[in-house]
Amino acid sequence: MKRKMMFWPLILLLLVPGQIAFANEENKPEQVAEQVIEPSYLSILEQWNEVGQGSAQNFERVVPPTAFLSMDENKLQSENESKEYGSQVYAWDNQDSIDIEVEVEVEGLYELGFDYFPLGEGIVPIEGSIQVNGEYPYFESRRVIFPKDWKSAINEFEQDRFGDEIIPAQVPMEQWHFVKAEDSSYLQARPLMFHLNEGKNTITLSNIRGEMLLGNIYVNSVGTIPTYEEYLKQQEGSMTQTGIVTVEAEHPTKKNSSFIRPVNRQDASVVPYKRDQRLLNAIGGESWETSGQSASWEIEVEEDGYYHITLKVLQEKQSGFPVFRTVMINGEVPFEEVENYSFQQKKSWINETLSNEDGESYSFYLTKGKNTLTLKADASPVNRTLFEMDAVMKGIEELSLSIKRLTGNNQDRSRGWRITEYLPEIEGQLSGWADKLETESEYLLELSKGKESVEVVSLQIAVERLRALAAKPDEIPSRLTQLSEGSSSVAQLLGNATLDLKKQPLFMDRIYIHGDEELPNPELGFFAKSKESVMKFFHSFQSNTLATEKVDDDVVDVWVNRPRQYVELMQNMVDQQFTPQTGIKVRFSIMPSEQKLILANAANSQPDLALGISSWLPYELAIRGAAYDLRQFDDFNETLAHFSPGAFLPMIIDDEVYGLPETQDFFVQFYRKDILNALNLPVPDTWDDVVDILPELQRFGLNYYTPIAGAVAFKPFQATSPFIYQQRGDLYREDGMGTTIDSDETVRGIQLMTDLNTIYSTPLQVPNFYNHFRYSTLPIGVSNFQTYVELTAAAPEISGWWDISLHPGIEQEDGTIDRWATGSGQSGMIFDGSVKKDEGWEVLKWWMSTETQIDFATTLQIRYGPSYMWNTANLDAFKQLPWPEEHKEIVLEQWEYLKEVPKTPYTYMVEREISNIWNKVVFDGDNTRSAVDDAVVTIDREMRRKMEEFGYMENGRVVKTYPIPTIEQVESWVEENEE
Fold first, then answer.
1. What are the pLDDT digits (tens) for 231-259?
2. Residue range of the domain that includes 60
3. Are residues 804 and 919 in the same domain?
4. Domain count, the chain
5. pLDDT > 70: what percent of the chain?
6. CA 693 → CA 674, 704, 750, 779, distances in Å?
7. Is 970 a member of any domain?
8. Taking Cα atoms as reference points, which of 476, 911, 566, 570 lies closest to residue 714?
9. 647 HSE (CA, 13 A, CB side)
10. Structural contact between residues 751 and 744, judged by C-beta atoms closer than 8 angstroms
11. Where is the secretion signal located (predicted)?
12. Whether residues 345 and 479 fall in one domain
């Protein structure tokens, strides 16, 4: 029977990620195992301000490691093991917790600081959490970051074979650091404050991830920053007359993020510049746009005194909104006015002398010798707006869920509703949201000095739509596309504006430290620009170093379907490692699209080797005689052992293998630990377990996500085949001449796939699981590598409070659980028309070797940031990637159940018909068995046509079988090599 869905219009999610409000009397808060109820820091801060909560003056307590409570004594390191700290330190790692006890005479607000020495080579940040007297005071205290400082391995830029400068390797600085506990998203301008009671307080520091040596812990009264007037009174001195000190911004002495990197600006106004070379002549842009990222430069001056600071910058943020930087001298913000200094958008380079609103230049006191200038990206000025927008988006999501429960998600425009009878507050809600957003729109206009940016316009449009909906609330069920769904809805407008506001990109070319001297012009004059423009035009007809073009006969030509930064790194690696060792010259070129590869093959101008191509492409080229069988190489079976056997299935014809997996996807279960704990729900292990937790999830307006919901009208194999394979069903007959989707096992898989939607009411369509997961409406579901990257790199507010587990499966009669899922990524192949097949194979082996893949993955992430994760298909390399160990173990175990769908000439029809079956059953109410039988007729008819086209049938009779490849077949090749 189809389960009746109960609606709970008053059971809503709170505004803070991870929070749940229990409005149902049957589920009171004290009845759940653990409830996450912390409000945001901004909310708590407002409460403190309202009651005038203060702090003791000039208070400081230093707690050395020897005074830590409840610690593992074995982790207390001697002074000789302290990395020159000078006293005993504590080795803090592996989910360890330590307590300190602090006695204060005055109840109030205090800051926490830490001495620490990061350990380990990886770039995964060290994370901890802080509790005060056994409780998290606010949600942000659940994650505190202890960053590393990085520097370039060499001071000068080396050049590649084309004369272009190469970004140097980044190495962590082996030194002790000091940090005050800060909001992990760096949306607060100042360190976090903690409320301590009069008398003794217990502070608990718990490890979430990473390892470090922990020195003293400091409990201080809240620090203050002087105003500019106060600052000038603190130091006696006069304006310097010693000339201009020029610092090239692309050479910082240190940075707290390895991926703040030098960039090439092919602009003659930038220093240095060469028309025929790509010089790394600036810093920043998208690599320096995340709040909290800082870079420091060493500045040496000849005398004590006051100096002006001018930054040659380019602020070309596409949305038109200003960006902000915190300015620090020798580690301290000198005065309030430069705590979040704004840079307005300009279309050209400017000399931005740090000044007040009236254009009067600030003076900074520097001492003779070396000083440090630090600039930190700072999104704190827009934090209040982000908070309000987030609250409105959560409210819209809750309201939308309530309306859908009332209407059964019926959006028929011809049907009338009286929503106000069930939700009498709806008009006030919508108007209240509009008022809040209007206030924030005006605030953003002030920040942008009256300029209407994309963010401001988005808020204004959202206000207009909310007011229009509030005027006719009973029409909202048929107008949900304006409120919460679709690309132009209020929710989407606010979501896009949120992402834009957080970004703080800024390019810097030079730093000038000076007195009243005149500075060089930041831009070339009109005539110089015109001349350079003409010269660049003629130069553009010369060779593009990474373009696909004919190469010399002694060079292996490799086309790569990836962005420039990937290909540049690959070329540098092959030049520095592979060619010197083998003598084989290799040229990597950017392939704009896979279509170009197909056209090049048709014109007989194909390369020797192709990388980064879809896993299905080697098959399509092979069946047309254009790909080379890699099993012809004697050591192929040896190479085969580094990969998942199931990844080869779409690249096999008979006993021939036409591709090598390069990257590999994974489908695992993502879940919010905080929400499942709050609801006292277990992490499901099988689909039966998923069905068991669905009623409790749905009572609170939550649900479970499957890849079916992520697809649109067409449901690909990656969404449908796991249900079939987990039931031990199959898609083809063994001889390849027909489909078996009408077998009992396969039909059971299809039935479960459709029942999840028709009976158990899982979502039919979810445009973006990542957003719903962040905002708690879908706190659990099956998703892939892309979601993992997004959550790791772009969801700091829930870091540490989500996890992954194995894909739900089907328990078999022997007690084992089949978790089969797809994992197709990208692949590499050698062309049959190449005359350098042996050399191409050596390149392919080197590229996919364990050492090369580890080197490439680590360098890529250190250089370009956490979002540049490399999901190598080499299992041995994957084990050593800079990912959290617990997550790598889950992925590797799931890959034991990796099973790609084998390719046949008619595979596309099987995939399409299974998708059609789902649509017929879910939307049209057809019987599953009947829909399958109809699909079999269609598939077999197309099978005969395609098999005749490729010579496997003649006049309807089989003349040559098409054996379907199996995992066992691939495993046998590996066993042959081991023998």
1. 999 988 899 988 999 999 999 999 999 98
2. 41-221
3. yes
4. 5
5. 93
6. 16, 9, 21, 12
7. no
8. 911
9. 28
10. no
11. 1-23
12. no
